[in-house]
Amino acid sequence: HAKPDGPGTYVYFDAAMNRRVARSLLIHNELHRALENGDLQLFYQPQVRISTGEVVGFEALLRWQHATMGWISPAEFIPVAEQSGIIVQIGEWVMHTAARQAAQWLARGHRNFRIAVNISVRQFVGQDLPQLVDTVLKETGLPPHMLELEVTESLALHSVATTLAILHDCKSLGVKLAMDDFGTGYSSLSYLKRYPLDALKIDQAFVRNIPQDQGDMAITRAIVAMAHSFGMSVIAEGVETIAQLEFLRALGCEDVQGYLFSKPVPADQAATAFAGFATYPAVSDPVI
Ligand code: C2E
Ligand code: MG
Ligand code: MG
Ligand code: MG
């Protein structure tokens, strides 16, 4: 049975907490160095149109291989970067790099695809996001409609008027806007009618348990219906199985992104995805 917390408990928590703090300090310092030394990379994950199997886009995702610490997940270093504010400089590098890559693919004759970049909420506060977008588009010559900004629901925690103005300024430059991780945030649904969004990305938390979890399937169904009634398209994240793909297809979800087709991969590998994918399961020989 449970013993009252002894001193050992505190020692344990202190030690664990110290390790966590030390690790994030280390990551904080190393991240500055990584940005300066060019140690950050972008991987690209294809986004596939369910109806045709065509690749309609790529999401740019940060990767960091540290000389001694090995691969560090963005799930670990992005929060540190957001807290310290260095996400602003990293975000600039990401947008430039991703747009340059997309412009290169375009120059090689690939058309009709978008490049999606993740935008931290820190890039909205006290920063000139529309100016950055404008600069990047001018420098790379990428047509604006080929760039998609992925924002998150945490935007809603900031002044609605300010955020809305920034989103509209970005939209008027011609870029696309998608709401990432939809359904997991804190915001009310009322922003859907106010934010100039082109697409909702269904969070992988809902996709993961299709087709076992009736609740997640109901949520997914509702998100697709809601997006469509607002004239937005839907992209599902974390699609790993044909059963998930078929469920999303039946709902009329336009696009998917997930390990079923490809993990995020370096640019040269990602480019092979322009050949497209088969989105139909192999049909077994008809029984005669
Ligand atoms: P996100 O924007 O929601 O990106 C999708 C994440 O799901 C990626 O994780 C991707 O690798 C992963 N994923 C894609 N398909 C599957 C699948 O089928 N199964 C599973 N289990 N996972 C899948 P990743 O690359 O580790 O990135 C994690 C998060 O870090 C991103 O979530 C995003 O919030 C953040 N992040 C990554 N790159 C950037 C960036 O350049 N800027 C900012 N601000 N955040 C970034
Ligand atoms: Mg994203
Ligand atoms: Mg997401
Ligand atoms: Mg996510």
UniProtKB/TrEMBL annotation:
Domain EAL: start-end pairs: 24-278
Domain of life: Bacteria
Designated name of the protein: EAL domain-containing protein
Species in which this protein is naturally found: Rhodoferax mekongensis
Highest classification ranks of the organism: Bacteria, Pseudomonadati, Pseudomonadota, Betaproteobacteria, Burkholderiales
